[in-house]
Specification:
29% strand; four-stranded mixed β-sheet; Spore Coat Polysaccharide Biosynthesis Protein SpsA, Chain A; globular; 19 strands; alpha/beta
């Protein structure tokens, strides 16, 4: 089995976690659960002693110093400096085009929380074995609720005794009724955006379905330059790419789509309510980060970077204090935080 190369994607601005997350220091680089940032935790899950190679990180220029400052000291990772955001197909292709064709890539978003690291690593090795046989593998995350904010994977036939399955179909984000039906069916998993491919197989499939992206990425890499551990693709060539997600560009079109089911205490920390659910809570469902006192409260999250917050007799509320900014929302309203004036114009 080839060593697995983690490819860590650092994209997005994290506006739904405003005011804590900012463009200058977005969600991956914050210690939202415990004292380790989500990015550092992602790298630590993929350590050498667990059978992983040093990571390849794909990040924008604005966040390169954050990446370099937070990479664990045991990792001698390299950084591909993405000239501009062109969605996940191009970002993954940048790494694939820089790696040997037979390298097994494990694509990991940098801003997810995974509580069961052992389950993640076991799934990664199962996925890598399938990828070595030129399957393009998604992690199929066991759903714990009828979630409408994620796409789903429908499990198909088993692939021998590998522990993997063919993907019968990809399903767009459903409404609540369909999400409940998926949960009751038992054959559907969340599509969490974690993948394993052989680098050459991925580039072949990308060229088959989106030749324009594959050609532009290869040209930008050929015409790019190295700067120590940083690699800079050619910006002018990369700018010509019409961005598309890896799901639309490749995964939903390939005949080699596979999945590995996994239950690993996963959360994409997609908004403040998702963070609340991932944090340790008291018997009344309350979670506190920073200085706060709660009396007769249920299902309340307080996250303060300084001022003491007192909350009395309140249910289902999220209170965030960041410097001079105070944000208060209900769990249902958490989806709209990214549309606030402060988040959009941070």
């Amino acid at each position: 089995m080839s060593t697995i190369v983690p490819v860590i994607l650092c994209g997005g601005s994290g506006t739904r976690l405003w005011p804590r997350s900012r463009k200058s220091k977005p969600k991956p680089f914050l210690p939202l659960i415990g004292e380790t940032t989500l990015f550092a935790a992602t790298a630590l899950r993929c350590s050498r002693d667990a059978g992983f190679a040093d990571p390849v990180v794909v990040a924008g220029a604005a966040h390169v110093r954050l990446v370099e400052g937070q990479l664990p000291s045991a990792s001698a990772g390299s950084i591909i400096v993405e000239p501009e955001a062109k969605n996940t197909a191009a970002a993954i292709a940048l790494a694939a085009a820089r790696l040997p064709a037979d390298a097994i890539m494990l694509v990991c978003p940098s801003d997810h929380y995974i509580g069961d690291v052992a389950a993640f690593r076991a799934a990664a090795h199962t996925a890598a074995a399938l990828a070595a046989d030129d399957w393009l593998v998604s992690f199929g995350i066991e759903p714990t609720a009828p979630e409408t904010g994620f796409g789903y994977l429908k499990r198909g036939d088993a692939i021998g005794t590998t522990g993997g399955y063919q993907v019968e179909r990809f399903v767009e984000k459903p409404d609540l009724a369909r999400a409940k039906a998926f949960l009751a069916d038992g054959g559907f998993s969340w599509n969490g955006g974690i993948f394993a491919f052989r680098a050459g197989a991925f580039m072949d499939e990308l060229a088959r379905h989106r030749l324009d992206i594959a050609q532009a990425v290869r040209a930008s890499v050929t015409q790019g330059h190295e700067d120590g551990d940083r690699f800079h693709p050619d910006a002018a060539v990369f700018a010509t790419i019409q961005g598309e997600s890896v799901d639309y560009a490749v995964m939903e079109k390939t005949s080699r789509a596979a999945m590995v089911p996994v239950a690993m205490e996963w959360s994409d920390i997609g908004n403040w309510q998702a963070l609340h659910e991932a944090l340790p809570r008291d018997p009344h469902g309350n979670a506190v980060r920073g200085e706060a006192e709660l009396k007769n409260c249920r299902n309340v999250l307080v996250d303060s970077d300084g001022p003491h917050v007192s909350v009395v007799g309140v249910d289902n509320l999220i209170i965030v204090v960041d410097g001079n900014n105070i944000m208060i929302t209900t769990p249902d309203g958490a989806q709209l935080v990214g549309k606030l004036h402060g988040a959009v114009n941070q």
